[in-house]
Amino acid sequence: MSHSLTIIQGGMGAGVSSWRLARAVSQQGQLGVVSGTALDEILARRLQDGDPGGHMRRGIDHFPFPRMAERIWQAYYIPGGKAESQSYLKLPMHSKDSPRELVELCVVANFVEVFLAREGHDNPVGINYLEKIQLPHLPSIYGAMLAGVEYVLMGAGIPVKVPGVLDRFVNHEPANYPLQVVGAQDGDDTTLTFVPRELMECDLAPLTRPKFLAIIASNILATTLLKKSNGRVDGFIVEGPSAGGHNAPPRGKPQFNQAGEPIYGERDRVDLEKLRELGLPFWLAGGYGSPEKLREALSAGAAGVQVATAFEFCAESGLRDDYKQTLVARAVSGETRVFTDPLASPTGFPFKVAHLEGSISEEDVYLARPRICDLGYLREAYRTADGRVDYRCSGEPMTLYVSKGGRVEDTAGRKCLCNALVANIGHAQVRKGKYVEKGVVTAGDDLTEIPRFLLPGTSAYSAADVITRLLSG
């Protein structure tokens, strides 16, 4: 494995680490990574917005199964884009047996994102998935592999079954993935299955197996992955609790500081010496966005670092310009606040939220939002009384959640991250022509440090500026 990848750009949000950002990073010879979260929804919304620049059309034109590509185009493309007050189409939500049109959209969307990120250079590109968003895994990974993705990164769970999926898809063979179902009993069918040949319109040569990098927050997880994975693990990304997005919860009895944030201690630190003994390359993440921290990582035996927050606010990231400019200006004036919110995420994992007016980081904005769960990526699967698999989300209307066996106390403070993250990139859903979904910006504790990437007299910087600065040490 090439160890020349000193910098891995983190996979952020839904569409924040878009193909544009990943391409910019990979063109600099480091590893650009697209976020694999909600790509089906994002492609559908880009097409309904009229496909500005024609990039989606270009990606779709290279998809190997033209009839499927054409179905997607016909279903979602609106010439000139939808009216601003018009709602985006409501897609079916993923389930154990998702409708074929959603599976096809998922395959094509992952293909297009990776294809565009790889366009115009020969350097590797990666894709990042969250293990806990299990329902779309199989069609997503297959679509990314069709486009030649070179790395698959996955955290937020224990992805022991992903290496085997990568092996199966090389020869377009069927693959399974175990769905975690709350209350499942022996004999229940909880297996997700994907059969590439049911979608293929022609025979294709074998695909290249991507390298698999597991994102971990503990030594135990690293060892478990090596022991129990059904295929090869190629390396680790060690993510500390100062990283943006979802953080692993602290080990032991939860304790909170005065602001109500979870407190991390000695037990939450990864023993790098033990990690080195496993013999696989690893990259350190969470607060490593500086030349000094990169040097420190390399001297600790790491192959390099994963950096997200610095790239999140650069010119090529998919984050809305108004959010980006406000938070960069705040960082310059020393006024940014990042709160590790133990409640915001329906997953129950702590989630880092940057304070930003007009976003659901503000209590009154959050409370003014009707509780709706209609994207459903973070829903949990559970067994119903009659033995079926159904889905619930602690961010959905309380009565609905409780009627599905959820506990009312689990709904307190939960935010609809799915709708907010898609609003972050300029594709906010419009409800009944009036209510527009608000975003929620996640960032690492490093948000305060982004002014170091600005050249004197400027208020914006590029992905190349980040890389140049990090390597300047």
> Structural class of the helices, strands and pairings?
alpha/beta
Tally of alpha and pi helices = 16
Overall CATH class of the domain at 7-319 and 455-471: Alpha Beta
Largest sheet: 8 strands, parallel
Beta content comes to: 5-15%
Question: How would you describe the overall organization of this protein?
Answer:
The structure is a single chain. The chain has 473 residues and is of the alpha/beta class. It has a domain at 7-319 and 455-471: Alpha-Beta Barrel (TIM Barrel). It is 30% helix and 14% strand. The chain is built from 16 helices and 17 strands. It has helices spanning 19-27, 39-48, 55-61, 66-76, 100-118, 137-146, 162-170, 219-228, 272-277, 291-299, 309-312, 321-333, 363-367, 398-403, 417-423, 463-471, and strands at residues 7-9, 32-35, 125-130, 151-155, 175-178, 181-182, 191-194, 211-216, 235-239, 282-285, 304-307, 338-341, 351-354, 380-383, 389-392, 430-431, 435-436. The strands form five sheets. Strands 1-11-10-9-8-4-3-2 form an eight-stranded parallel sheet. A three-stranded mixed sheet has the order 6-14-15, with no helix packed on it. Strands 5-7 form a two-stranded antiparallel ribbon. A hairpin with a 3-residue loop joins strand 16 and strand 17. It is globular and about 50 Å long. The mean pLDDT is 91.
